[in-house]
């Protein structure tokens, strides 16, 4: 019994000693200005890539018949706090089929262009001028966008819909 306890205490000391040695070996550059210091210095540490504004559809803007799903796949990924800009003409004598922006709450309502469950985020006039800006303010959120006009016809046949997930913002070094 006494032998076992002595041995046990010795083992504890060995474990403690090796943890301390391991700790000092594991952080050779701790605070020594060779690039391993933490937190990183502001002048050479990583910085978040600043948010960008993206015009949905690029020079095509927001109109009937353009494939926005393909556009989103080619122009992603999108990051939290990026801003989407929807540009479309308001209703007028020469524009009798205006557009809008709706958001679906789920993949299934998006797939079916089921506008009964969708929320209008921009009406037919909001896309005028510099366009309607929508900030992707939630991280890791699936966003489902569509035009809400003509009872879902612009969404389905007109291909005016796309989805994306807002990724965490990327970092870059020496920014
Ligand atoms: C997004 O922007 C808000 C302020 O506009 C800021 O508080 C937040 O930290 C930002 N989120 C990310 C992930 O950068
Ligand atoms: C669209 O919304 C704006 C506010 O963003 C409002 O001033 C305008 O009256 C609305 N237009 C229509 C046609 O609903
Ligand atoms: Cu439309």
From TrEMBL:
Superkingdom per UniProt: Eukaryota
Phytocyanin domain mapped to chain residues: 52-168
PROSITE patterns: PHYTOCYANIN
GO MF assignments: electron transfer activity
Signal peptide: 1-26
Alphabetized UniProt keyword annotations: Signal
Short name of any one Pfam family annotated for the protein: Cu_bind_like
InterPro entries: Cupredoxin (IPR008972), Phytocyanin_dom (IPR003245)
PANTHER family according to UniProt: GLYCINE-RICH PROTEIN-LIKE (PTHR34052), OS06G0216700 PROTEIN (PTHR34052:SF1)
The protein's name in its UniProt record: Phytocyanin domain-containing protein
Originating organism: Eucalyptus grandis (Flooded gum)
